Amino acid sequence: MRCWWPDGLRGADPLMVAYHDEEWGVPVSDDRALFERLALEGFQAGLSWATILRKRGAFRLAFADFAPEVVAAFGEADRERLLADAGIVRNRAKIDATIDNAAILLTLAEEHGSFDAYLAARLPRPAPTLKHGSGSQDVPATTPESDSLSTDLRKRGFRFAGSTIVYSFMQSVGLVDDHLPGCFRYLG
């Protein structure tokens, strides 16, 4: 058995199932992978996660495999290229935010040794899990920890880093583990 969300209204979505089974909630420590997940969560705002997963390969090509040092150096020609790329979400505010966020992430990495170290200093580990008997209604959209992290990121200049986006990011990279009891990935 797995969590409810990979199963769409028309049955299981293979991309969502693979994401759930292989990635969601698995701890990530690589700064490039952390940047990718945070950027994709920002692009997902207002859209379905399945849409973002279907475009993930194009995002990786368009954003230099989410290497923050490369993305931070993108200029106006890159912004125009991204706005013309039908393979990704062509939203100027989200594109600009991703480029600017890459530079801020690099600053955080320099200050703390890595972006992962910055996150480790702000969030408890191991990741908290849902209590036995929890259901989908018990999975929060935000927590005090996501509120605090969001506030700090936004204070530093991050955009598309509200508490809901940050909490989804935290779920994605294993900073919280919201697999439901009964799911084969549940660790509680």
Mind sketching the topology for me?
Blueprint: E1 7-8, E2 11-12, H1 14-22, H2 31-44, H3 49-62, H4 68-71, H5 76-83, H6 92-112, H7 115-122, H8 144-155, H9 163-172
Antiparallel strand pairs: 1-2
Describe this structure in words.
With 188 residues, the protein is mostly helical. The protein has a single domain, classed as Hypothetical protein, domain 2 (Endonuclease III, domain 1), CATH 1.10.340.30. It is built from nine helices and two strands, in the order ββααααααααα. The protein has helices at 14-22, 31-44, 49-62, 68-71, 76-83, 92-112, 115-122, 144-155, 163-172; strands at residues 7-8, 11-12. The protein has a two-stranded antiparallel ribbon with strand order 1-2. Strand 1 (7-8) and strand 2 (11-12) form a beta hairpin. Helix 2 (31-44) packs across helix 9 and helix 6 (92-112) crosses helix 7 (115-122).
Q: Write down how many β-strands occur, each being a DSSP E stretch of 2 or more residues.
A: 2
Order of helices and strands: EEHHHHHHHHH
Structural class: mainly alpha
Please give the share of residues in helix.
40-55%
Low-confidence stretches: none
Core attributes:
globular, mainly alpha, Endonuclease III, domain 1, two-stranded antiparallel ribbon, 188 residues
Summed up, what is this model?
With about 190 residues, the chain is mainly alpha-helical. The chain contains nine helices and two strands. A two-stranded antiparallel ribbon has the order 1-2.
